[in-house]
Amino acid sequence: MAAGPPRDAGAAATRAFEHITDYLTGLSTRPIAPTAGYGKIRAQLDVPLPAGPTDPVEVVDALAAGTADGLTGTGSPRFFGYVIGGILPAALAADLMAVAWDQNAGLASLSPAAAAAESVAGAWVRELLGLPASASVGITTGTQMAHVTALAAARHRVLARYGWDVEADGLHGAPPVRVFAGAARHTTVDAALRLLGFGTRRLAVVEADETGRMRPDALRAALAGGHGPAIVIAQAGEINTGAFDPMPEICALGREHGAWVHVDGAFGLWAAVSASPRRRALVAGIDQADSWATDGHKWLNLAYDCGIAIVADSDAHRAAMSTRADYVVHGGEGEHDPLEWTPEFSRRARGFALYAALRSLGRAGLTDLVDRCCGHARHFAAALAGLDGVAVLNEVELNQVLVRVDDDDAITGATTDLVVTGGVAFVSGTVWRGAVAMRVSVCNWMTTEADVDQAVAAIATAAITARARARA
């Protein structure tokens, strides 16, 4: 019989920690974009499968060497692409411990520690966001699955009002559920509707204004145009402009028409902790919704992956997610079984890092993080607007800045690409109202004004190069 791998896990973990330390130490100076593409990295990793065991330390070293050039420095203070935060030190440490502890976080009986950490962290999230203390919380992989979780609860409740048990009888023959969302909704909404069996053709798209906000008058007309079970999906923080749907009006219309209102707040919900009355006003009335989805790996600066589903109707939430089996030992009265609140049965203990991040920041630290990023976004916008030929397309209400160069698709796209390949900063491209644009998102706890200035300088240089190449 072939011998198994060496049993000294400590040696491999120690070597991994050395690689982690080297990576983090060099994060602020290394090129942010990968310097090698998929093909090269795959070739470096694609060795023949070993016939027998390999020393774990050797495996760790080979993995670190083979992937180094293909890693994106998403934790860099000058990473402004998509909406991706860094990793808070306490959250990083907690995640490393969670991996070592290797807890299956589905049941309180299986891991009282993981279940308790999730329960406390969920209560803190509700408190910070000003949501009902009685709401239930499930921790998922991200807002995509948080949508699925919350909208499954919505599906349960709106159909139950019409006498239909969707968990038992499915959707075949059920009363048709009307689903409404704004024209500028995030694509994860559509994906969630597909996964839940609604299909995207069931979605009634509600007109949005020039900033991406859903128009209440258009929603009112859409709701009045039919009857039956209904779900309205609002948005707190449009992915390009950061715009917020008018929550008080939308929630009031939902109540008037008996519709469940769900809020996509992947990053925007955290405006609730801002010290700025203007920013807090963006989420005014949001507590009147029925469910909410947000991310931990964006503004909370947790490692991937962590999403949070919050549902005011905890009975509907449990009915949509809960499952039973003879061999499963469920928690007793007052104990939190995470599998009751998410689509996953077995999963990693994401709650440890969420708990650690919130405890390390506290309310004041989280407020400072959000407001500091918003201040950096405003500085970004002012500095970019001062560059020749650069236009900022949105009012910077939060942490998103939308930019166009020379009012030209090709030059804007080329500028974006040049910034990324230059390695000093990372921004992402998008299409806004039919035009190519550059998108800048600020949500890293380490970002400073100096980092913003470096990024602006990189964008200015890239724009000059893009124009020159276009003329050549």
From TrEMBL:
Annotated SUPFAM superfamilies: PLP-dependent transferases (SSF53383)
GO BP: carboxylic acid metabolic process
Keywords, comma-separated and alphabetical: Decarboxylase, Lyase, Pyridoxal phosphate
GO MF annotations, alphabetized: aromatic-L-amino-acid decarboxylase activity; pyridoxal phosphate binding
Coiled coil: none
Keyword Lyase part of the UniProt annotation: yes
PTM-bearing positions, type N6-(pyridoxal phosphate)lysine: 298
Cofactor(s), by name: pyridoxal 5'-phosphate
Family: Belongs to the group II decarboxylase family.
Protein name, as recorded: Pyridoxal-dependent decarboxylase
Protein's organism: Parafrankia colletiae
